[in-house]
Structures are given as structure tokens and as C-alpha cells.
Amino acid sequence: MRKFNIRKVLDGLTAVSSAASASSASQQQQAGNRETEIQETLQSEHFQLCKTVRHGFPYQPSALAFDPVQKILAIGTQTGALRLFGRPGVECYCQHDSGAAVIQLQFLINEGALVSALADDTLHLWNLRQKRPAILHSLKFNRERITFCHLPFQSKWLYVGTERGNIHIVNVESFTLSGYVIMWNKAIELSSKSHPGPIVHISDNPMDEGKLLIGFESGTVVLWDLKSKKADYRYTHDEAIHSVAWHHEGKQFICSHSDGTLTIWNVKSPTKPFQTITPHGKQLKDGKKPEPCKPILKVEYKTTRAGEPFIILSGGLSYDTVGRRPCLTVMHGKSTAVLEMDYSIVDFLTLCETPYPNDFQEPYAVVVLLEKDLVLIDLAQNGYPIFENPYPLTIHESPVTCCEYFADCPVDLIPALYSVGARQKRQGYSKKEWPISGGNWGLITQSYPEIIITGHADGSLKFWDASAITLQVLYKLKTAKVFEKSRNKDDRPNTDIVDEDPYAIQIISWCPESRMLCIAGVSAHVIIYRFSKQEVTTEVIPMLEVRLLYEINDVESPDGEQVPPLPTPGTGSNPQSIVPQSHPSTSSSSSDGLRDNVPCLKVKNSPLKQSPGYQIELVIQLVWVSGEPPQQITSLAVNSAYGLVVFGNCNGIAMVDYLQKTVLLNLGTIELYGSNDPYRREPRSPRKSRQPSGAGLCDINEGTTVPEDRCKSPTSDVKDNSFSRSRSSSVTSIDKESREAISALHFCETFTRKNDTSPSPCLWVGTTLGTVLVIVLNLPPGGEQRLLQPVIVSPSGTILRLKGAILRMAFLDTTGSLVPPAHEPWREHNVPEDKDEKDKSKKRRPVSVSPSSSQEISENQYAVICSEKQAKVISLPSQNCIYKQNITETSFVLRGDIVSLSNSICLACFCANGHIMTFSLPSLRPLLDVYYLPLTNMRIARTFCFTNNGQALYLVSPTEIQRLTYSQETCENLQEMLGELFTPVETPEAPNRGFFKGLFGGGAQSLDREELFGESAAGKASRSLAQHIPGPGGIEGVKGAASGVVGELARARLALDERGQKLGELEEKTAAMLYSADSFSKHAHEMMLKYKDKKWYQF
Question: 941 phi and psi, to 5 degrees?
Fold first, then answer.
């Protein structure tokens, strides 16, 4: 067994060069002599990568379908995705391999199957009786383009209309074409000289299955008699048709037209419409025709027993309603309701009580698929209120600019966020239950709380409960409400650091234990929030302005070459100057007329009412310096135990004590080095008493990295408006070399210098040039003293070097366990403490869940540092590099996280070349290396994140979050956790035809379609017309599809009926696919047989 494990690990080394492996191995050997060996439990068999669930609104939707018995909704998209929705919490995502747009979806009602028609002229049959639906059959049309499909209820024959105006018929059991074809030239009048256009509608008469209504785009409608193979009636109109719908009695139908009119036709009066309606047309006097309107794209005609029918339509507004939002119109009797939508309507469906088209429909709701939303309208209540949508479809309400994922949070956090978020809910929703209620939930095998935070372009943050592969919004925070809104464009002199979305969130730093939250926005602003359950009114918003400026005198490259001095912005003003203020500054220009000391946004100076939830503790803004705008913030960290927040950009670093509301540190990046700067850059204004004490470059300095060795990262441009975090590892120009941005910040309690005997609070700073610097924090005692005495901050002189920009840092104790940053436990700060509590808080030490606190002084810690190119583990306090791993030579790491998994920890990395990798800690052994997806756009780079317990996510489209797991255990449990889409449900009884209708005719006429379309009657279709492709659904899926709720006897009879037809297909099918079709056919006929053999008096 041991040999096998070693081989698996060796397999994982493929992405690492042999030289790197050798150096790593030799270092590990030396380390073994120097350091105590840590037993690592994670092996490569603990890792497996797979997608789990996709949340959010289907991006670019294009088709909609509903199963009225199973109560399942299906949405298809322009990228070939399929999303299925049941009861809240039951969702499923599938993808057509071709990626072609879905043009239409048709459920096999109550059969657990779905047909999709794609823009590449393929039809696919999906089996929904398994937790992960799969395609059973596909049919590719070679000579004709599919435009419309229709599958009658309880039929196995699918009508397929084409662009040429022909109709082909597909057997959905075997997915083969019938020889029966309706040709366009047979359907239209022989005297007609022009082609009638593509098929836009097909449906059978609700009362007579033998009569097929065919709608052509040009305005011609034909009632086709399937038995006699000729047209009974032809209805011609001079306006193009968009859709057609039947009255349930089969005596009338309605058409919607391109001029905004509806025509209602009596079946037996083809000469002219019975009625013409222009729902939104202005009625002119003198009996003239109303003015033409926009096309009515779809109409539905639904009847009720107790009242007038409903005519529901989309589009049709008059042309003079410029700027009016898209509308859905509901006409019921004499009343017409026009319901405005936020986005354009893609499709809509009316949900009815019965699946039978020949019964009173009794509509109860309308589901409207919009371009960016899904709306359900309650037809039964006055005013047509909408249902409250329980699905997490509002991720994109404002574009997502960043996100963070936290697994294994404190258990009281989700209830706390839910209770404050519950007050934000809108009122006025329908009081009924959400009508899409099919499927069953999966088993909950994961019990730990998970939270996702999304930051948005409008400055809002959303907190989501993501526990157990579900997603539900908990709480929304609007950060923009602290700023004055500019009323017009001329009133926005300061926001020109970005053209639009000045409040957009760039970075989120959150401490789940203390509930302290800190955000950095695109206008170089930082806001710190505390969580409170009490409502407060803040009279004056606490505010600081920081002048973070970058100036150099002259530059020398590390190898000693002289270079010309840099042009420097400004006029030599002191970069140390800080403007702490509680009101916005009024100084807007310097002596030479340049904008100076002005922040980009204006903080409100009126009292601010703050609801329970996150409340502002402090607003920090970077200001303009002598006409130079502040640079966007590239890194951020907050620590509740120390009461500090720190942030950096390409100019330097600033640290703020948010308890005392003071700036503690404001340095250019070069000044952090002191005399140890490898690039020998000199600040123009030398600091007094700021030179750091301590040694020069430490032992593990590998020398400087030559710029050309580095791979250019697409995130290098700091001013890029795509909210990228600046991690410039490409430094070809002197300016870039000197503009060293702060890329990583980490508060911790560790050894700051080589000769330290005990750990102390400090801040580790990582830069885009691969340098790690350590700043010592001298904190006053707790309680009242913390608010009175200053925090003393000083650089330690410790410098470590890696290749590429620093991304992440973490610390391990002697046993190899993670040492989390110290934190204060959360308490309600808006309620005054009693005396006992005050005494406790004086004595209270910051919580550091570190096993090292009880260790002897001589024991060491390990720093784990991950950059764009490599990872190192450094022993502290000795500062020896004991393990090193070159993660990638040709690409760069976009995201690296140190995470816990299976009671151990590892480093997880996502590379720009699409690889996801994990490494053991502390030895950095490769455990997983899988090619997952290439970096196709900045959205993935901006949102990808790993968290504990093998979870990860990224924004897969502007509206959807894709979650994945790299844990073997989660992959194995996933099948149980997924919900069931199909549940056995009895099909409702067919409508009672009544005694006299049954005796004298007039009821629904059935048709033996098998007799008409089967091979014996219709012959075989041309082989070149369409090609059958067996699906990857597999035997297991088909067995599931065949196990319905019908008796064995009916199944045996059905097998006998179908045997002849199946034998003919043996030539072109493998045994497996034969079994597939056979099994599925048994199920597809089960309910039809139930009613087919009953006489009228048995109902």
C-alpha cells in the first residue's frame, strides 16, 4: 500500500520541473536534520476535483418549459446550458456539449424526460430520472433547420417544423424519423406563388388529435388532416405571424401578428378573422384602423370554468411609448392589465391546473422569463402580485466585482445575519406558496456552516448562506449610502479616478469570529464596519484622509547600473503628512492650481441612521496629491484583536488604529526597506528616525530576480477599470520597477527577527516584486489604556525574497497546525457594559487559537509564503528556508489559499494556465494537479477562491457562481447531496366527456398515431435527412427511466406491441442502445395505455 501511495505522489509531480523537485528534495533532507519532523496525513488520494453546483440566474436565457404534473421548470440558454428548477433547494445544471443555443424545450409530461432543440439543428432527449440528467438520444438534421417543435400530451410522436416550411415527425422512444412528412407545397394553396416562410407554430386541435394547426411566418395558417394527408382549411392574413394558441374547445384559435394585432379565427370560417384586436393601439375615429404597434411576440389563450378567458401576451406596445419598459399584458374580460418588467421578455408560460389541452385550463400563474430575471405572477389575486422568488437568482442585481468564501464559520453567524437580513425583505408579494414545487431534497451530509460574500459594482455587499450545496441570501449591505450622491455629471469633479461605478467593491477583509468587516472600494476608499443588532443614528461619520504619495530621487537597478532619475509628481510636499478629519476637507487645490488634498468621494455630513447589521466604524480615503489622483488599493487586512486596519497600493502602505481613529503608518514601499533596498531607490524626502534597525538582507535572500525571467500577468495594470488586484510581476520599465505595489498583508503573532526568543504581534507585508517585510506592532494594554496610549509601529529589518508577486501568507506551529490571526470574540458594542463586564474586558486577552501560546519559548513556528511563481516554508525564528516548491515556470498563480482539509492543512493554487494544484504543508509535496479551466476572462481571476473542507468557487458567467470541490470525500457524497428532480406522481384523470357528448360525438377525438406514422404505414425516412446519435446517458440511467409506476402486465403487453418495430432497428444499433430504447418505450407508453383501452362509460 505504501508503494502505491508514493507512486501516486510521483504522478502528481508532472507539472514541476525535475530540477525544482531535486532542489526541493535536497532541502527537505537538510531540513530533516535541522527541524523536528512533522507527520503529514494528507495524501493524493484525499483529493479529487469535480464541479458540485451552479447557482444564480441562467446567463443569456433563450427557452422555457414547464411540466405541470411534476411541477419542474426548465430554462435553456444561448450557450447550450440547461437549468432545471423544482422546489426551493432543488436545482440542476446540465450542458449540451456543442454549446449551441437552445431554441426550444418540450417536457414529456410526467415521464421524467425532456426534449431540447438547438440552433445547430439537433434534438436531444434528456433523462431526468437520475440526479445528474444525461442525454439518451440525439438526432442531427442535415438538410433542414429546426424552427419549432410540438409534442402532444401523452404522445410519443414529436412534430418538428423547419425553416423550409416542412414538418417531420420523430419517434421520441427510438429517436428516429417517421417516413410521414408534411411538405409546405402540399399544405398551402396551389395557386400561391410565394413560399409561406418558416414554420412558427404547430399544435393539434385539443378536441381532435387528427387535425394539426400549422402556422407559417408569412401569415398563412393551415389546418391539416393527418389521416387524409390534405389541408382542411387555410387561413390567410397579410401580417406576419409570431404565435398561435387554441381555445380549449378546439373551435377557435388566436394569432399574434407583427403589427401589434391579435386575430381570433373560427375554425370553420377561414375567409376572415372572427375578431381583430389591437390591445395597445389608439382607436381612431371614423372607423379607421388603429395605428400599428410593435409586434406581439407571443399570445396564450386560457379558459376558466367560472368566468371569462385570459388572453396573455408579450409585446404589442405602440411605437410612441419611447423609453417604456417591456410589458406583459393580461386581458381578462373587459379589464386589461399592463405589467411592466425590468428587462426584456425572453418567453412566458401560463401555469394551469390541468395538463389536458381539451379541458378548462384554469390558469393560476404566469412564469415570465426575462433577460436577467425570472418573475412569477399570481393570476388569482387582485392586482396580479408577484410571488417572492425563493431561488438565488439575484447574484447579478449589480455586477459582481469580487467575492470571498468562508467554510466552517462560527455556528451563530448565519442566524445572526439572517435575523438582521429578514428586516430588509420587500412587502406586497403574493401570499400563496411558490408554485414550482417538484422534486425532493438530497441528504444533508455536510453539517458545517458556509458563507459567501459578494461585492458589487454599486458598492453593495451580499452575504449568502451556502451551507450544504444550497444558496440563500442572508443580508445586504449598501456601502454607498455613507457618501453624497452626485446629482448630475457636472457635479462629479472628484470621481474621475473611475468613469463609472465609483463605489464598486474591490477587496473584502472579514473576520467571522469578531464579525469585523472591512472593504476597499475603487475610489481609493476603505470602510470599516462593526456588527450590531441595535439600530443607531450616527451624528458625525468618523473619517480619516490619508495622503499616500510616492516620490523617488534616483533609481539604481540591483546590479548597479545607473539609470536616469524618474519624473516625480508633485512639488516635493511631505509624503508623511496626514489629514485626520471628521468632516470632508475643503482644500481643493494647491498653490499652483493643481487638485490637492481632496478625496474622490464626499462623505455625508448629515446624521446617518444605521439599521441593525453592519454599521460604519470609520471611513478612510486616500486624497489627491498635487494633481495626481490616489492609486487604487491593492491589498487590505483588518485585525479585531489589535484594533488595526492596514492597506496598500502601488505608492505605499498605510496603517490605521480604528479604535483611536489615528493613522499609525504612512510609508512609501521603498521606505519599508530602509537601507536594505535591493534596488537602491532613494526617497526624495528622507525620513527622520525611520531607518529600520536589524540586519540587512536575510539568509534566504536568493538575490534579485531579473525582470525578463518573469511571466507577464494580465492583472498588472493598476489603473485597469476591471477591478483587478494589481500584482505586477512584469517589470520591464524603470517606473514599474520602482512602483512596487503592496500585494499581501497578514497580521500575526510570531517571531519578527532571527534572535527573537518569543513571538510578538506583527504585520507581514508582501509586495509585487516578491519581497516580504515584517513590521513590529507594540500594542498598549487592553481596556481603557488601549484607547489612551498609542500603538507603536516599527519596521523590523527582516526581509525575505521570492519569485513573483506575493499572494498569501500563513503561519504554522511546531505541530504543523495553522496559527490563525488573533481575534476578539464578538460582543454587542451599542449596549453599555456593566461593571463586571468592564473588568472582564480589561483582563481579556485577544483570542489566538494557537497551540503555540502554551508552548515553550524555544519552540519554533513556520511561515508559509505563496507567490505567483513559487511557495516557501520558512522556519522561525531562524528564518531558514526549509521547503521550497516552484509552482509554475511558464504561467503564474492567480489565487493561492492555505486551507484545512480532513483535519490537516494544505496550500491550494489556481494558475492562469487553468491548473488547480494542492501541496502538503509544511513539506510542499504536490498532491493534486488537474487541468480545470483556462483563464478566459478577468472575471474568473477576480472571483476564484478556495476555502476550507475542499470547497472552491468562481463566477462562471456574469450571473452565475460555479462551486467545485477538490475533496475526494465530498465527491463521493455528492450524489447523495444532490436533489431528485423526478418524483412518482399519478397523472390527473382525463376530463369527463359527459354522457351525451360520448353518445352523439362532439368530445375529443383520439388518433392512432402509430398506425399513421409507424414504419408499416409511413415507411422509412430518408437516411440523409437526419442522423441518429446514441447519447451518453448509459444503461443505468435508462433502467431508472423505465422504472415507472405502471404494472408489470402493461409493461409486458407494451413490449410485445413494440417488438416488431424494434427488430427492424437492430442493424444500426448496438445491443446496449437497443436495450435503452426498449426500456424507455415501455415507460413512454404507460399512461397512454391506461386511458386508451377505457370506454366512455368507464370514466
Answer: -60, -35
Q: Which of 436-450, 693-707, 838-852, 1027-1041 has the lowest mean pLDDT?
A: 693-707
Q: Is 1016 helix (H, G, I), strand (E, B) or coil?
A: helix
Tell me the C-alpha distance between 34 and 32, whole Å. Answer: 6
The backbone torsions φ and ψ at residue 139, rounded to the nearest 5 degrees and listed phi first, read: -135, 120
- Residue 646, classified by CB atoms within 10 Å of its CB into exposed (0-12), middle (13-18) or buried (19+), is buried
- How many CB atoms neighbour CB 436 within 10 A? 26
Whole-model pTM: value is 0.82
Give the angle 196-198-199 at the CA atoms, nearest 5°.
Answer: 100
Q: Is the dihedral of CA 836, 837, 838, 839 positive or negative?
A: positive
- Highest-confidence segment of 268-282, 556-570, 1081-1095: 268-282
Amino acid identity for residue 372 in this structure: K
Dihedral, 286, 287, 288, 290 alpha carbons, nearest 10: 120
Task: Determine how many CB atoms are found less than 10 A away from the CB of residue 28.
Answer: 17
Cell of 510: 472579514
State the pLDDT at residue 710: 32
Q: Which set of grid coordinates corresponds to residue 138?
A: 440525439
pLDDT greater at residue 1078 or residue 179: 179
Q: Which pLDDT value is given to residue 627?
A: 85
**Interior CA angle at 370 toward 369 and 374, to 5°?**
55
Share of the chain above pLDDT 70, in %: 75
The cell for 940 is: 474568473
Residue written as grid cell 440552433: 119
968, containing H or E segment = helix 968-977
How would you list the strands of the sheet with 61-67, edge to edge? 61-67, 72-77, 81-85, 91-95
Residues 6 or more apart whose Cβ sits within 8 Å of residue 373: 57, 341, 342, 343, 393
The widest CA-to-CA distance across the chain, in whole angstroms, is 108
Distance (Å, whole) CA 208 – CA 223: 11
For residue 185, what is the enclosing H or E element? helix 184-187
Give the per-residue pLDDT at 1029.
Answer: 85
Residue of 110, 127, 119, 109 whose CA lies nearest to 76: 119
Least confident of 419-423, 650-654, 850-854: 850-854
Residue 639 pairs with which residues in a beta bridge? Answer: 644
| Residues 744, 897 contacting (CB under 8 angstroms) | no
How many residues comprise the chain?
Answer: 1099
Torsion angle defined by CA atoms of residues 632, 636, 638 and 644, in that order, rounded to the nearest 10 degrees? -60
Asked if residue 50 lies in contact with residue 965, where contact means CB atoms within 8 angstroms, the answer is yes
Q: Pick from 312, 372, 308, 359: which is nearest to 337 by CA?
A: 312
> Burial of 832 by CB count in 10 Å (0-12 exposed, 13-18 middle, 19+ buried)?
exposed
DSSP labels, 64-78: EEEETTTTEEEEEET
